[in-house]
Task: inverse folding
């Protein structure tokens, strides 16, 4: 049976709904709860598809928008949209074979070396010429790549058993290597749900792939439905 108040599944012997504490005598024996899945912005549902859990996992620098990872009973979808830009990457749930995530500081070694090299040359020229001007110029010019050699970053990579390339590949890795093509770099930083997503995503995908409806019931958030 299902609670007529919130649509949560209840057992025959329960006196109160475990979700909203409504009386069980208000429950209905309909085969399915009278509720609809909440829409995902910019994403159309397939037949019998519904949202299991969604995370605000990153803030994208390029394209500039908030990035969300949404897991349905059919797909894993990375999506984000703002005025003038939209991004959607997805993979069928049953094809997901692994997940790799990272957030923290990354160091761009080429920028560091260039900045230090410019400053080093400036110091040499100042010593050779007896003037302090090259040092000032070197600090200004070399300071630019030094200022850009470190930043906070986020990386999400979802692997597929049905494709050689990762269908979801967002951000940059620990070594500062761009996580997409050189012509289109998706720069990302952590957001409010990053830690939660990193701790839950792998276990949730395994449960959804192997446990069916029980896995969905275990992981489905209460705010993924509306009435």
Result:
């Amino acid at each position: 049976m299902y609670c007529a108040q919130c649509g949560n599944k209840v057992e025959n012997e329960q006196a109160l709904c475990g979700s909203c504490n409504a009386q069980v005598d208000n429950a209905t024996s309909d085969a399915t709860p009278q509720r609809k899945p909440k829409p995902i912005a910019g994403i159309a549902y397939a037949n019998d598809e519904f949202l299991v859990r969604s995370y605000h996992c990153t803030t994208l620098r390029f394209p500039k928008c908030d990035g969300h990872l949404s897991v349905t009973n059919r797909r894993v979808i990375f999506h984000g949209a703002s005025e003038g830009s939209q991004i959607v990457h997805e993979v069928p749930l049953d094809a997901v074979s692994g997940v790799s995530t990272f957030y923290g500081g990354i160091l761009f070694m080429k920028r560091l070396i260039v900045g230090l090299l410019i400053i080093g040359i400036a110091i040499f020229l100042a010593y050779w010429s007896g003037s302090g001007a090259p040092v000032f110029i070197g600090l200004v010019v070399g300071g630019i790549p030094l200022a850009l050699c470190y930043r906070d970053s986020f990386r999400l990579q979802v692997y597929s058993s049905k494709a050689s390339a990762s269908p979801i590949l967002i951000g940059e890795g620990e070594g500062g290597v761009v996580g997409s093509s050189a012509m289109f770099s998706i720069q990302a930083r952590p957001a409010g749900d990053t830690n939660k997503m990193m701790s839950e995503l792998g276990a949730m995908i395994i449960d959804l792939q192997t446990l069916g409806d029980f896995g969905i019931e275990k992981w489905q958030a209460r705010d993924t439905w509306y009435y």
In short: The CA atoms of residues 48 and 218 lie 18 Å apart. The mean pLDDT is 81. Residues 40-108+149-226 form a domain with the PH-domain like fold (CATH 2.30.29.30).
